[in-house]
Amino acid sequence: MREPSLNEESSFQYKKGKLFCEDVSISQIADEIGTPLYLYSHRALLSNYERLKGTFRRLSPLICYSLKANANLTLCRILAHLGAGADILSGGELYKALLAGFPPKRIVFAGVGKTRQELEFALRKDIFMFNVESQGELELLEELSRGLDGKIRVSLRINPDIDPKTHPYITTGMRENKFGLEMDEAEKLYLKLKDSRNIVSKGIHFHLGSQITRIEPYLRCIEKMSKFISHLRKQGVDLEYMDMGGGFGIAYRQKESPLDIEELASQITPLIQERGLKLIMEPGRYLVANTGIMVTQILYRKRRKEKKFLIVDAGMNDLIRPVLYGAYHEIKKIQQPKKTSPMEVVDVVGPVCESTDFLAKDRSLPQSRQGEYLAIMDAGAYGFSMASSYNARLLPPEVLVKGEKWILSRRREVYSDLTKTEATSLEEENLIPSYPLPFVKLQGSGNDFIVVDNRANLIKDGGSLAMKLCPRKTGIGADGLLLLEESPRADFKMRIFNPDGSEAEMCGNGARCIARFAYLKGIVGRRCRFETLAGIISCQIQGKKVKIGMEKPQDLRLNLRLSVKGEIYEGHYLNTGVPHFVLFTSRVDQVPLKELAPSIRNHPKFRPQGTNVDFVQVEKGNTLKVRTYERGVEEETLACGTGAVASALTGNLTCGISSPVRVKMKGGDLLVYFEGAKDNSFSEVFLEGETRLIFEGKISEEVENV
Ligand code: PLP
Fold first, then answer.
1. What pLDDT is attached to residue 149?
2. Which tens digit of pLDDT belongs to each residue from 176-204?
3. Which of 88, 148, 435, 698 has an alpha carbon 20 to 30 Å from 668's alpha carbon atom?
4. Ligand 1 centre distance from Cα of residue 170 (Å)
């Protein structure tokens, strides 16, 4: 009978009208992290492994999980922890297998096209067995293993020419397939290896194909291999291991039967024991296929005269099996359909620009609506591992469920992942000219900024460009240069350069300006998150108004007394992304800021990085009037966002003003929101104010000569 997909034994069950994985509602996960997504059950993985181990217990086989089925690191770690070995096909799989904790002495390496580098890597790690597939590979191994301590272990992979009666694309043990060696060729090599100083023949390997649901091909092959082993023994080649590969088939449809592993075990046990052989097996699909599902959402419904389409957000790039092999995956609604739900025949298709992009054809499903989630069942094997970024689609996340808990085993890709290995800067090769370089000038509460989209990384030295562009006579004129760059952690990264070429960690007004810029250029929506040197900033854009969430303020030091030019000044130090020293005064307009501020900015107490300086006057109605001297600009600026925040927070602690605080600066008003705690810490700190787009232009290459 079919492996359970939705009965009492399955990890995927309807409970209270919703499909659950173990004890977690799948729609909850989908709501939280979006679709498409892959989801795996810890319990199913364990039970598949234990069942296989138990069934073949009399042979105590080395179960080498075939990573090609699903090389998810979390799943691999669990299997390694259970004591499984690994069957690998590439240097990349070896890397992942080792990272997951499979010991080298349980790793077997098959593959027709192992490169010199891959073989060297595996030799360095002293893996258990090389399953050699050609004479050329054996010669290369011979060469590479010269000078190594001890002999390396090989099995020859035999092409037994047996039809496993599976899909023609996944047979591997027939003469017309590229895999393995013919028996007479293998015999010659075994005999030659008797004299090898570096290599010892340890075993024989075969792999008939994948998704095999009948035991006969295995029995025929093991019979054939056993005879061959006896024949070799007579010639002095004594093999210890028989590696029967993988291929154990599961039932993808209700009416199908999986491979009867109990029957297989009972029939092959005497054959293997008789010859005193040790067994290796390389299951992939059997262990992980029914462990996983893919969850997708219906984007649209479409109707033609004779066809109905459900257009979903997962495509052939996410799960290629239906397209590649015409494979069948059961599809379940996440919302349990009523028994009386009408059925409809649909094609479930993806968003990829190929007519072959489908997950199911002419499938009878209970009627479903736009926005509903669907589960593509039994997608744990050859699902994610065959996924690609075709159409520049982002690889989906992978989740592992264990009981009531779930963990994000792999995050969803973000756009910058798509180009992380590509050359994005082409100006050095003069393929794309850097100039004229488009820029936008924005101002926020009187701080003005030149903003450049640097996602193509055309600007290598922001500091030197800032020194050329910020001066008001010889450049464009601005308080700073903002570069919008790619970020692996957020929607984009802000870099801010002062007119003196130094890079600042953060600037509240600059942050608001760059967020508006990103929105205007279509790089982000109304809500976004971006990276700064001072941490991640969240942001909401509403017309000209931009509200940013600030990182938690740090290093608060209240009532700090400084001696400056023979006088004592008392103020409060706080880092709101950049350092600020805040002095409260009754007449802010009268403060001799020009004379006083530079000495405070450079005061020994604040070395080496120095500090910004804010003079603050408390007015009625939670309002402050603030003047700021900015480090880097080295003069009073019309406004400073981090200064407004520092003034409002220290004002809360020392003068009792409360959120929201209106901060009046020469360049305009800002609003500061926050929540204070008893221990003088703050959370939920937001800065809101207007931004203005002043003009757009192009920087000419003559700027280089300034
Ligand atoms: N071993 C070898 C050499 C293979 O080529 C494969 C799959 O192609 C496997 C094991 C795993 O096969 P399955 O996932 O069908 O068990």
1. 85
2. 888 889 999 999 999 999 999 999 999 99
3. 698
4. 9
